[in-house]
Amino acid sequence: MAAPLEAPPRTGLRRQSRRSNGGHLHSQDATISDTLLTSGRAALDVLGTTAPAEPAIGLYLHVPFCALRCHFCSFTTAPFREGAMARYLAALHREIELVATAPWTPDVRLETVFLGGGTPSLLEAGELADILGHLRGTFTIAPEAEITVECNPESVDALKLAD
Fold it and tell me: Structure pTM?
């Protein structure tokens, strides 16, 4: 008997303008890529018809993993299990590419990028660099853009910050 499948992690790529919040677009695990393509295109249909009201937008990326679940937290989180981050990152990178195909993306620039969670500081320095590099290669990022990563004390230290 096969082991039950874990629910795939969701990415939380959300665009926001200063006047109104944008919609969510959630990717699925690579094991169901056909469903991803179909649902991603349907979500892109919504994003394609809801262009930001201003050219300057903010981008929120939700990293859903936590070492432990806090009793007071109401955010969507998942246990930090082996292999989960790799699946999440693969889905996130596919979602970045999908959103980049929206017809309005050449007309906007990212003024803020915020990685929240969960615990984004569970990302390795190289994983974070890959995400930011992908965003820089895909979207226009303002030279003075604010880039913020939420950190929990137990998952960051001076050595990690130096990377």
Answer: 0.72
